[in-house]
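Please review this one:
***
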Amino acid sequence: MSGRSDIAECIRHSLERYFQDLDGEAASGIYDMVLRQMERPMLEVVMREAEGNQTRAADMLGMNRNTLRRKLTDHGMI
């Protein structure tokens, strides 16, 4: 599936640019930062594709509906 490698390449490129922009400053919390930055747009797109149906969106994401609701709440999306 080429979409997966395209996403990975975008993340790789963004992280490389992030380190360049740090210009020698120490980095910290990168793991949580990356997950948080990619999670909201993923949720937005999946919710749109599921036409707002949380059960369908949770199925698409491979998680249960309660977990999806928590993530949507965490991102201020509900």
